[in-house]
Amino acid sequence: MTETPESTPAPQPDPLSEAVAAGYRFDGPALELGGLMLDAETLGDARIRIPLAMLNRHGLVAGATGTGKTKTLQLLAEQLSAQGVPVFAADIKGDLSGLGVAGEPSEKLSARTASVGQEWTATAFPTELYAIGGQGTGVPVRVTMSAFGPTLLAKVLDLNETQESSLGLVFYYCDSHGLPLLDLADLRAVLQYLTGDAAGKAELKSIGGLSPQTAGVILRELVAFEAQGAGVFFGEPEFDTQDFLRTTEDGRGIISLLELPNLQDRPALFSTFLMWLLADLFHDLPEEGDLDKPKLVFFFDEAHLLFHDASDAFLDQVAQTVRLIRSKGVGVFFVTQSPTDVPDDVLAQLGSRVQHQLRAHTPNDAKALKATVNTYPTSGYDDLAQVLTSLGIGEAVVTVMNERGAPTPVAWTRLRAPESLMDAAPAEQMAAAVAASSLTPKYAEAIDRESARELLAKKLEEGARKAAEDARVKEMAREQKNERVTTASRKKAEKEQDSMVETVVKSTAFKDFMRTAAREIARGMFKSGRR
Predict the structure, then answer these.
(1) What per-residue string of b and e applies to 481-517 under the rule 16 or more CB within 10 Å gives b?
(2) Among 158, 392, 397, 410, who pairs with 355 as Cys (CB 3.0-4.6 Å)?
(3) Could you give the CA distance from residue 188 to residue 186 in angstroms, rounded to a whole number?
(4) 411 close to 397: Cβ distance less than 8 angstroms
(5) CA 344 → CA 24, 99, 307, 455, distances in Å?
(6) Dist. CA 161–CA 316, nearest whole Å
(7) pLDDT grade for 1, boundaries at 50, 70 and 90
(8) Rounded distance, CA 121 to CA 102, Å?
(9) For the whole model, what pTM was predicted?
(10) For 363-369, which contacts have Cβ atoms below 8 Å and span 24 or more sequence positions?
(11) DSSP letter (8 states) at residue 376
(12) How far apart are alpha carbons 472 and 131 in whole angstroms?
């Protein structure tokens, strides 16, 4: 009797792959992130994506240094531009400028793109280069001191809450007295006037709640801040953030890159300047509700600098801006090393998460890793912490918000490769792009119009002129008084002298003397002697 060979059982579908594939299947347009990794070597068929319409629900790109965060940012910016969405990003290390240059193929790149099923084509994307205050290669970006405001400035100057509220009173004083604050010199002039001039000290008392000592502390911090070269960031023409919302004639979104040189010298200033840009967008843009795609996606690199040692009032302002700017059609992605760098109130609003490798070399690292795992929804991985520490370069653990607003399954992802140059653009090409920009004539030349400094100088000059005039009037009055006294004394003396002469002349002795003298004179004239 012949035995029938046993049939080979069909492979059982992987529950994780099925769940991930279903969770990332969207109806509308989406950004392609990469492919699902079943283990450290094997890729599955599931594609990991982010719905375009949900990018205004914000996001986080996190991971240790050198794990690929910048390339992830570059990948997202490219696809957003291709979908007609403008992008803003702070170019911390200078290598994002390569977005404007087509990428360079290589065997290593081809192997990676093939592994994730990517049809890679070298592509240059439309970019606009900016530089704060013109320091660097880019169209100058400036802000007036009034627009920057006391809350953000207090964060930059590292003021405490009392000093921050006092700074707010100084801004209020300038607004109510018609003193435009355009640059650091204006604010310094106001503080010097309020603390050094007699009239200013009197006005300082009228403000209420601002002590001379606190005003002096703010002035000293401001002078030190200006000595660091920060004065170039403030002034006119003030940048119009609407210029970030531009597209090309063929419908691609323009990628705006803000160069941040020497970040280590003024980290708080740079991060707070980015916060001003975001707050200004929130102030100017109309309510839009839910859109098919965002009007702008804003990448906030080195986000931990923004929140370091920040006051409660500042953190509240950031959280409110992030929460409400979604309805203006703007998405915000924070880029930092660890999710714990971002306050809970802000982190809770970030719908998309791209988490690169985390390291657990120290007790603090281990604590941060545990906190990161706790921020993820339930995953299909037995040990998510183990996955996070074993990720390779260009790999990430991803979860996003689906089209219904629910979180997608946590997915270990090998990310696609950018199609633009993964390095800084050549310096001569960057300089030529800035020179050819339509925005250069608009912002290149700084403007110095009449502001608080000049108005206070006129006021002090007028006060000095009036004081000199008053002193001259007093001197003239004193001289006239002295002259009247001298004239009266002279007249009195002359009158007294006349009276004395008259008395003598009318006296009998004087008359006898005069008769005798007359006879003697007559005898002398006629040579007659005495009888």
Answers:
(1) eeeeeeeeeeeeeeeeeeeeeeeeeeeeeeeeeeeee
(2) 397
(3) 5
(4) yes
(5) 26, 32, 11, 45
(6) 13
(7) very low
(8) 9
(9) 0.81
(10) 368/338, 368/340
(11) S
(12) 54
